[in-house]
UniProtKB/TrEMBL annotation:
Species this chain originates from: Microlunatus panaciterrae
Enzyme class, broadest EC rank: hydrolase
Function field: Nucleoside triphosphate pyrophosphatase. May have a dual role in cell division arrest and in preventing the incorporation of modified nucleotides into cellular nucleic acids.
Lineage summary: Bacteria, Bacillati, Actinomycetota, Actinomycetes, Propionibacteriales
Cellular compartments annotated: Cytoplasm
Residue numbers annotated as active site: 79
EC number annotated for this UniProt entry: 3.6.1.9
Keyword Hydrolase included in the entry's annotation: yes
Protein name: Nucleoside triphosphate pyrophosphatase
Entry similarity comment: Belongs to the Maf family.
Keywords: Cytoplasm, Hydrolase, Nucleotide metabolism
Superkingdom of origin: Bacteria
């Protein structure tokens, strides 16, 4: 059953993660103002933002519901935040803030939460958050300065990457690694299964 899979995200890491897993998503960026959303905790914030992104893209498509009730289109929205000391952190707003974040993170442990919202064109939808514990190396001030100067911390949630320059600064994780990069493949598989869609049916036939 060929599905139209839409990734409601500008994240290059989410797109490459899905492609490496054999999927061929279209990208439609939601462009939502993330500052408008507040939530009780970091995990809920990530989920609410994922929901807003997926719903915004779904509204823009406004396709008629699948007449047979069987879905033909799958929209996936995600949002990632780092929880540290009970606070939720997205992308740092400046290099100075990125330095402050790392001075607080180094040698400590945070939780990277990624909210996932899946909306089908037959009206069904599911939202869940995956959380991965992340242990950070005890960076020196010079390392923090050098890392922030690369610019990488400024464009990623939590001011770090697992699969980029930041990889040297993550000493370990507990949970799904892809969730840290921005989209949890095992969680997405489970959500689609619960929505009646088999993961293998999303593998691109043009592999
Ligand atoms: N490559 C990589 N990217 C990461 C990592 N951690 C977080 N990110 C990225 O940081 C960004 C988090 O910001 P979000 O607001 O969730 O997503 P975005 O990139 O702004 O894109 P939208 O979904 O359109 O809002 C995403 O692009 C994540 O893929 C990581 O370990 N590796």
């Amino acid at each position: 059953m060929p599905y139209r899979l839409i990734l409601a995200s500008a994240s290059p890491a989410r797109l490459s993660t899905l492609r490496q897993a054999g999927l061929s998503p279209e990208v439609i960026v939601s462009g939502v103002d993330e500052s408008q959303v507040v939530a009780a905790d970091a995990a809920e914030l990530a989920l609410q933002l994922a929901r807003l992104k997926a719903a915004t893209v779904a509204d823009g498509l406004q396709d008629d519901p699948a007449p047979t009730g069987l879905p033909s289109m799958i929209i996936v929205g995600c949002d990632s935040v780092l929880e540290l000391d009970g606070e939720a952190y997205g992308k740092p707003d400046s290099a100075e803030i990125a330095v402050q974040r790392w001075q607080a993170m180094r040698g400590r442990t945070g939780v990277l939460h990624t909210g996932h919202q899946v909306i089908l064109d037959n009206g069904r939808q599911l939202g869940r958050t995956a959380s991965t514990v992340v242990h950070f190396a005890d960076l020196s001030d010079a390392e923090i300065t050098a890392y922030v100067e690369t610019g990488e911390p400024l464009v990623v949630a939590g001011a770090f990457t697992l699969d980029g320059l930041g990889g040297a600064f993550v000493t370990g994780i507990e949970g799904d690694p892809h969730n840290v990069v921005g989209i949890s493949l095992p969680l997405l598989r489970e959500m689609l299964l619960d929505l009646g869609i088999a993961w293998r049916d999303l593998w691109s036939t043009t592999r």
